[in-house]
Amino acid sequence: MIEMKHVSFRYEAGKEILDDISFRLEAGESVGLIGANGAGKSTIMKLLSGILFGDGEVLIAKTAVNPKNLYEIRRKLGYVLQDSDDQMFMPTVYEDMIFAPRNYGLSKEETEERIDAVLEKLDLKELKHSRNHKISGGEKRMAAIATILAMDPEVILMDEPTASLDPYNRRLVINAINSLSQTKLITSHDLDMILDTCGRVILLDQGKIIADGKTEEILRDQKLLEAHRMELPLSFTRR
User: Which of 52, 59, 84 is nearest to 160 (CA)?
Assistant: First the structure.
């Protein structure tokens, strides 16, 4: 469902951000993409969603990510951005949630049913008609996730989905992620959330894949994590 083949990327006249990256996610996999700041995680997400284009091959559900295929790619893929203000651009939560499904041809009745189901799952019914500029940062993050889920995409990218959330809302998001059957690639510094939601982890540093394997094995490897400017999840330090 997600595949990168020998992908490299550099900003114009800048150093290489990604260096020969290759990996694939099968249908239904939930994979954590981890690494310290500047490792290249957000760049990978932007390449997968067609915000950026680099060298090599990028595929979503066997469709090449290139300018010609962007409409098809964005029907298949939902992207929860790290900054919710970049994602929530309509006046209200409801208007943001209805925008993509209606533009991709879903009927108003089907869209309403889907929106209500997502808001119920995330315990956000009271935010349905809230104005985006009046809700808190945590509420806006939850609403941004709800907007993507309303699209019901085949592939979901999540960039720091639990950032700025209190423990209650963080748990709601984790439960929602675990209830989804879609293929998911999740970047986060919240390694306990990655442990709770992902069966596999890809560790990135300085634009290279350092490790790719079972989540618990990689996240228990203190020497590996510390060598790449990361720390053990709190779940393991408390044991």
Answer: 84
- Going by C-beta distance under 8 Å and a sequence separation of 6 or more, which residues neighbour residue 165? 138, 141, 142, 173
Q: Can you tell me the mean pLDDT for 215-226?
A: 96
Which of 106-112's residues contact partners 24+ apart within 8 Å by CB, and which partners?
111/150
Give the DSSP letter of residue 196: H
Confidence of residue 163 (pLDDT cuts 50, 70, 90): confident
The domains of the chain, with CATH numbers, are 2-39+47-214 (3.40.50.300)
DSSP per residue over 42-53, as a string? HHHHHHHHTSS-
Decide: 149 and 78 in contact? Cβ < 8 Å. yes
Across the range 137-163, mean pLDDT stands at 89
Q: d(Cα 117, Cα 200) in Å, to the nearest integer?
A: 28
Contact criterion met (CB below 8 Å) for 163 and 141: yes
pTM for this predicted structure: 0.90
* Burial (CB count within 10 angstroms: exposed 0-12, middle 13-18, buried 19+), residue 130: middle
Determine the Cα–Cα distance for residues 234 and 165; give it in Å rounded to an integer: 17
Q: What are phi and psi of 15, to 5 degrees?
A: -75, 165
Question: H-helix or E-strand containing 78?
Answer: strand 77-80
**φ/ψ of residue 37, rounded to 5:** -55, 135
Tell me how far apart the alpha carbons of residues 81 and 88 are, in angstroms, rounded to a whole number.
Answer: 10
The C-alpha atoms of residue 52 and residue 58 are separated, in whole angstroms, by 11
